[in-house]
Amino acid sequence: MPLRRSSFPFRTVHVIALVLCIAFLPWSTAFLSMAQMLLAANWFAEGIVKGTMKERLRSAFTTAPSLVFLSFLLLHVVGLLWTQDMAWGMDLGRILFPVLVFGAVLAGSPRLTHSELRIILLSGAWSAVACALFGVLFNKAAADDYRALSIFISHIRLALLLCIAVVVFLHYRSVKWWMNAAQYCGALLAVYFLDRLGSIQGFVILALIASVMLLRWSRRWGTVPRWALRISVAVVPIALVAAALALIDARHEPIPADLAARVEYTAGGERYYHDTTNTQTENGTHVWTYLAWGELRRAWLLRSDRTLDDPDDKGHPLWSTAVRYLASKGMRKDSVNVMALSDDDVRAIEHGMSNALHDQRGSIRVRMEEVLFELDLYRNKGLASGHSVTMRIEFQKAGWALAKANWLYGVGTGDTQRAFDAYYSSAQHARTAVATARAQRVPDAVDQFRRLRAVVVALHLVVARVQAWRMEATALHRLGDRLRRVVLHG
């Protein structure tokens, strides 16, 4: 039996509830939950009043699209059968409860009309832009802290909502010119906020959507423009990848081979340390060369209330941020250069700014450099904590390892966090063992190098002494010949 169209007030309440759900999405989970309850209550009330509850339930739980959507929740419910931590499992089920609400209500209600869908999506688009604007106007964090622009939800989720907003603004056109102008301005604002958020994935998503839309539109074009567009769509990603690889190579310039053997001292008499195994650079200057840790720590205490072992405002250790900042200015890491920093430089380091030129660059460029630094640190040291990109790599590794170990039925809904924690603990022990082995090998190699250098120096002294004796013997021999000639020839 087909579903009957609901009339006022149920249909109006249904649309209003959906508008509230999508509008509150970037703002408040509490108000979002209230909107979901309104949506579900209206759905049940309409079914009871109109006598269509049976048809609604059948449509909600028997059609293929709804079953696919609800299967994600069903997997978690089934996983409770063999879980050990039931409290965690039930809490996860509570978080996923909106899947049941939206899946059942939308599948068990008449489809939205074009105008209803337009109102709902435009409401969500304007809400996402308003949320980003609120963050820009009222956040109290540092200007380069892109995460602080999203006050209420994750900056990644806000970036995804802004991507949807751009598409919605450009797709739904109005017969009124001023509404079209407003939507175009909204799309430009959304792109601007994506740049302020430093959302690399946001621009990648927009580029993919734009490519698909252009390819669809190009079907109406002539042969030459159509093929030109197709070639461009294929070439541009390759060019971008090549540019990214060039940027990565530029960050790793080779260190002079003889740098480790050089003996150089600071103005205060401390010998410079060079880590020749790490080729990371900031603005073309190697980060981990010309380090005077003692002077650096003592001088920093004269410039800041924090120690170098304290975290900066972004959670990174201050010693790392300070070293990178000094390198970005082309300075050596000693007391003279720390005292030469301005008060603004010191505050920038405390805020977590690792490059002196970040204020002169766009947010996307800064974010790309942060990602490259995270990948460098992960590759060289195996550190992923506090870095979103490398932590995702660790999450994927952990998920794949747990899936292989429990390929048949998983670990149970309530045991997922415990399984991940156990994996991270074992992985950390393995990394610690490797790091310890490396740390043991490095001093041995250094001692061997020092002993070898001492032998070489001793041999050099012996050779020099022998050469001196030979020169002295030759000089004495020549002097003897001259004296002999003088005596014989008078």
What labels would you give this structure?
single chain, 18 helices, mainly alpha, 490 residues, two-stranded antiparallel ribbon
What does this structure look like?
Helix 1 (10-24) runs parallel beside helix 7 (114-138) and helix 2 runs parallel beside helix 6 (97-107). With 490 residues, this protein is mainly α. Helices cover 70% and strands 1% of the residues. It is built from 18 helices and two strands. The chain has a domain at 10-218. The protein has a two-stranded antiparallel ribbon with strand order 1-2.
Number of helices: 18
Overall structural class, as computed from helix and strand content, comes to: mainly alpha
The 3D shape can be described as elongated
How much of the sequence lies in strands comes to under 5%
Q: Would you identify the regions where 5 or more consecutive residues have pLDDT less than 50? A: 1-6, 433-446
What is the arithmetic mean of pLDDT? 79
Please trace the helix and strand order, writing H or E for each element: HHHHHHHHHHHEEHHHHHHH
> Main β-sheet: number of strands, strand sense, barrel status?
2 strands, antiparallel
**Distance between the ends:** 143 Å
Cα-based radius of gyration, to the nearest Å = 34 Å
Structure summary, number of beta strands: 2
Strand adjacency order, main sheet: 1-2
Into which percent range does the helicity of residues fall? 55-70%
What's the structural blueprint in terms of helices and strands?
Layout: H1 10-24, H2 29-50, H3 53-62, H4 64-79, H5 86-95, H6 97-107, H7 114-138, H8 155-171, H9 177-197, H10 200-217, H11 223-250, E1 281-282, E2 285-286, H12 293-303, H13 318-328, H14 335-340, H15 343-351, H16 363-381, H17 388-405, H18 416-489
